Inverse folding.
């Protein structure tokens, strides 16, 4: 069967204009009830009114420093509710939010500063120590909060256009060298709209934030729910299952967004999950890595009406771009679940080695992604930006480097990375595909596969991590049967 290319409906653009601009990200919560909780940070509950007032103070503070539309503001600090206010304040003056890992070493930090050329910086104490007092831009510690003396009353945001940059998020990609992904304001709002067709965030919902603020996942588990008036519960970033489950029960979490490795870890102790009152949970979404089918099936049976989503998407397309909804009460699947179909705000297609479009079933090809969520490019890396894109039929697509195929229902199925393809004895093999088969074996917790050379010959070797109380001989037998 051949599948038509996905199209973006023209009414999307009409609906997009109905939503607030990025600088008005808190308007839904403020309109519903300004005293509703926007953020939970430890034992603090921050209302939309307080968050809005703090953002206005930060905006006025930035203006006094001479920050203007298009300037980059560097943010390097521990996760806190003040960091959310910082991002909103930056957007209200038309500037660019540039969050980085507060643990970056001196060399990487200094290279990034030279490239970004920030107009000002809000830093962790470690990064502050890397810069001397003669730095060309003003720098402050988040803990000092020098903006608190400014008025927290209404602030008229600087007029911006959709093409203006919202944030620059650094990703190492496959090269190991950080690249700054430049995302426009309209791409960010488009992402909010497209993803919420599946999440259905509304006032009163509570989303658990797991991601550090320098990861693209923070856009979906912090700023996306806030955009629609939901509450965000910030975690400390410590991936302890008991701690996360306690927060979910205590605050009535409705939306859990979590990487596959952490979801698999949490799901190991099902008795701990069942001992908690998680009746409020309405959506569980995972991605970033291959997730065991049995884990997704467990959650599909957990609560009546619970939506379980398997997501996929690179930072270059605003994180999540493709989603698959697990069939409620799914049981006994032996292969990994598809990554699904594109969001309404994403274009997708498969191409072969000659960039010819693939539309048939089970034919592997590189996944290309385009549409309103697409990045503008990599910050000050024109050559890498040029290599990252291709134009087909007048549309600009990002080359994901991921190999996928279409199943019989038109869903995209992740096969592996192009750079993980190897040729042995004349046969082209993707080691990620082998990992996927191994991960589907009952009793296998995680699997890694790679090619090793010995005596001028190549051999594929696999490392398998098994679950507790699992017999090695029985696992070995299952693996051989699966292969």
């Amino acid at each position: 069967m051949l599948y038509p290319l996905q199209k973006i409906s023209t009414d999307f653009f009409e609906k997009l204009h109905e939503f607030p601009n990025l600088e008005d990200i808190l308007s839904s919560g403020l309109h519903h009830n300004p005293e509703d909780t926007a953020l939970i940070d430890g034992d603090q509950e921050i209302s939309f009114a307080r968050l809005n007032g703090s953002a206005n103070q930060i905006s006025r503070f930035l203006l006094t420093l001479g920050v203007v539309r298009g300037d980059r503001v560097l943010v390097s600090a521990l996760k806190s509710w003040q960091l959310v206010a910082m991002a909103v304040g930056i957007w209200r003056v038309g500037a660019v939010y540039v969050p980085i890992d507060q643990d970056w070493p001196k060399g990487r930090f200094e290279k990034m500063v030279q490239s970004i050329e920030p107009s000002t910086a809000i830093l962790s104490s470690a990064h502050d120590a890397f810069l001397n007092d003669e730095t060309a831009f003003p720098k402050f510690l988040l803990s000092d909060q020098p903006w608190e003396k400014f008025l927290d009353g209404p602030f008229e945001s600087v007029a911006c256009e959709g093409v203006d940059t919202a944030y620059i998020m650094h990703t190492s990609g496959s090269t190991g060298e950080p690249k700054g992904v430049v995302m426009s304001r309209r791409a960010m709002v488009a992402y909010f709209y497209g993803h919420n067709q599946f999440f259905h965030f509304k006032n009163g919902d509570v989303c658990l934030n797991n991601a550090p603020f320098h990861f693209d996942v923070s856009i979906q588990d912090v700023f996306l729910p806030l955009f629609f008036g939901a509450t965000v519960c910030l975690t400390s970033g410590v991936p302890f299952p008991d701690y996360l489950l306690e927060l979910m029960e205590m605050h009535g979490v409705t939306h859990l967004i979590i990487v596959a490795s952490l979801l698999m870890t949490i799901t190991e102790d099902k008795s701990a999950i069942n001992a908690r009152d998680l009746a409020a949970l309405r959506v569980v979404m995972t991605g970033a890595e291959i997730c065991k089918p049995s884990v997704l099936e467990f959650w599909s049976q957990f609560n009546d009406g619970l939506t379980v989503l398997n997501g996929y998407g690179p930072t270059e397309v605003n994180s999540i771009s493709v989603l698959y909804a697990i069939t409620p009460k799914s049981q006994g699947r032996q292969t990994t679940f598809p990554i699904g179909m594109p969001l309404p705000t994403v274009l997708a297609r498969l191409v072969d080695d000659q960039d010819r479009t693939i539309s048939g079933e089970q034919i592997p090809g590189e996944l290309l992604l385009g549409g309103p969520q697409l990045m503008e490019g990599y910050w000050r890396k024109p050559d890498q930006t040029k290599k990252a894109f291709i134009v087909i039929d007048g549309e600009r697509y990002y080359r994901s480097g991921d190999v996928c195929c279409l199943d019989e229902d038109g869903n995209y199925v992740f096969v592996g990375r192009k750079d993980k393809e190897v040729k042995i004895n004349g046969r082209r093999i993707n080691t990620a595909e082998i990992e996927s088969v191994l991960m589907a074996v009952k009793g296998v917790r995680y699997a890694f596969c790679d090619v090793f050379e010995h005596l001028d010959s190549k051999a594929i070797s696999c490392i398998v991590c098994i679950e507790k109380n699992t017999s090695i001989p029985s696992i070995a037998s299952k693996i051989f049967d699966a292969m």
Summary: The longest strand covers residues 395-406. The chain has 15 helices and 26 strands. The two ends are 27 Å apart (CA to CA).
